[in-house]
User: What shape does this take?
Amino acid sequence: GENVEQHPSTLSVQEGDSAVIKCTYSDSASNYFPWYKQELGKRPQLIIDIRSNVGEKKDQRIAVTLNKTAKHFSLHITETQPEDSAVYFCAGIGGGADGLTFGKGTHLIIQP
Amino acid sequence: DAMVIQNPRYQVTQFGKPVTLSCSQTLNHNVMYWYQQKSSQAPKLLFHYYDKDFNNEADTPDNFQSRRPNTSFCFLDIRSPGLGDAAMYLCATSRDTGTAYSPLHFGNGTRLTVT
Assistant: This one.
């Protein structure tokens, strides 16, 4: 099945700076890669996703890049704000599989 | 306007006493999932239904069962909860799976405590 590795486990950045979280996946047939944001005690919420036929996708301050050859994808957050503080999970879905496999999460801390 | 509703929000049960968690959806999605999330960990897929077809993950303990009586409702039954089963249980839905994968919509979760 799919295996998703996520780094770093904790990331602290100054407000206004950029944050980058990276994930690698094992199944070359994987074709869908979402990113979820989870605030303390709340449900995960989809913030952006990308399919394997696209190399990059952007939504305001958030972008995701995908390198299929290297089997990794990254989340980029620019001009970080205090409300960006949360745990971020990447995920992938293996070829033929029906459920998402999540990375272990990155705790993003925005320092004022 | 909640679309995936989980009840109760908090559930306390005794060691070994069966417990049922419920989930309902108003999205009319084909797929309903149950995830287990322990503190500071990623959600872990237990099983899912595509319509009435049940799909169990290989490493999901037999202690966990699920029922989906109709499109809107799905239940998680824990037959004999152990202390290690204390976790947040997240229900999610999606319109489709596989190559036609569509995003997950999560409920707010049920936090299970086992005493």
In short: Chain B has a mean pLDDT of 92.
